[in-house]
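Lab notebook: predicted structure, single chain.

Context: the supervisor wants predicted structures on file for every construct in the current expression panel, including those that have not yet been purified. This is the next one on the list. No modifications to the sequence; it matches the entry in the shared construct table.
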Amino acid sequence: MKTAAIVAATVSAILLITPLANARGKGSGTATSTYKASGGNHTVRGHVRKDGAYVPPHHTTNPNDTKSDNWSSKGNVNPYTGKQGTVDPYRPNSNLK
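Prediction complete. Output recorded below exactly as produced.
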């Protein structure tokens, strides 16, 4: 019973947030974030993707021209989650950008 109430509250919150995000131009599927120069990291605000999925707030590395310094790359560790990187940054079809 508690689970159903939590799910209902979550869905209600998302339905309330989505029109506000779209009205401000944030529902276009692009994450809004702020960062300084290359290197370091930044916080990405929660947002709704074009497919309707809600992406919660999270941290990510700043964009640059290398794949080897992303937290998901092998040999790196996400300092916020402690999760080890598993992606080979030198693999031709790597998901990293």
